[in-house]
Amino acid sequence: MTLWHGRFAKSPAKSVREISESISYDKELYEEDINGSKAHVAMLAEQKIIPLSSAKKISSALDQIKKEIENQTFPFSEELEDIHMNIEKALIDRLGGDGAKVHTARSRNDQVNLDTRLYMRKKIRAISENIRELQRSLISKASEYKDVIMPGFTHLQHAQPILFAHHLLAYCEMFERDIDRLEDCLRRVNVMPLGSAALAGTTLPINRKSTAEKLAFPKISENSLDAVADRDFICEFLSALAIFAMHISRLSEDIILWVSQEFSYVSLGDEFCTGSSLMPQKKNPDVAELCRGKTGRLYGNLIHLLTICKGLPLSYNRDLQEDKEPLFDSVKTVEKILAVYPQMIASITCNKRRMLEAASDPGLMATDIAEYLVMKGIPFRNAHKMVGELVKHAEKNATTIDKLALPEIKKIIPAADKDIFNLFSPSASVSKRNLQGGTAPEQISSRLKFWSKKLK
Ligand code: ARG
To answer: Based on the domain organization, do 156 and 250 belong to the same domain?
Structure first.
């Protein structure tokens, strides 16, 4: 029997039970539901709304129920719809009248909101810590290959030489902003909704501040309708996770390119690759591909929830029960990604010779020549044009700009001197980009120091 059958003559049809139930997935919230109820009954007793003896009995029965859930001996029932009613019914079965007091001054509408916030608080902290671990793996790989030079790309075309470490540190910055977004989201998650009850609050003399203190919430919700109706805090979280996944997806794409035969810049540890059931020679970067692919579900989950929420009249509507599956799916997906990614990064080995060879393409130093001319007093736009012509001339003669003789160069760039040939070194090129945010070894070293200290 459900807990709301009082005004009904008939039980819900089986098909109704099947579409209504959320216990199959919201049991994930059992711990939060129990912690929330314990704080709630302690407050009810403080306020003399229920006897202290009832609160104590409820609390210890909840501890018992928690153990049973963890030992998988707790009998969940679909008929009881969700985690809240499963636990409440167990309390009533065990404690009778005392158990029937737990739901005083509370509705499942504020209860589910509380549970979700508690769950997210826990997950945000854990995910942030795991992103830190990922940053650590990037920092240690960047330190290991501190001096490796590779081509930097725009439009997937050779652009300018960069340090491999610079490339990895770019992701470290992105992941830092991902953590920042999660922490910012946490401020809005960390608000205590209990007391909002079904939608308008309660006539009973509860003390919301006390409940908030017991559950370590720094803030209490200010509008009961808003508290039970809005899921913006989940939308934000799913958005932060979707953006994180976008970063993972781009890093994955870089890795997939780098391990391809065409690039051959890096290789991954065998334990992070898979073979083909047909082609014996294959070593595929499936982990990176799967992480890139999983980004789709993370985007989907965000759109899923935004779509559920749009057009709902205030306040609570049952549509909101559909918030949980995308939330849990995003969390689990990100947990899986973060369990594998740092180890996969650690397994990278660089093919330094191949990377340097690619970065030694003299075309990559064309900007350096234009900037060299700027220092000789030539306006940048004119310098750019001259170097462009030099590249065109070399191409027409089936050679590269570094192979041209000085008199030939001077015909196109009269201001050129023999020191122009010093510019064709990729290591000189990176070293000269010695400004904050630039790719010079000095800059990368100091950023590596910054990260090592921060991530300690
Ligand atoms: N399982 C429900 C949910 O997730 C709990 C709230 C149900 N409230 C209600 N009025 N039927 O939203």
So the answer is: yes
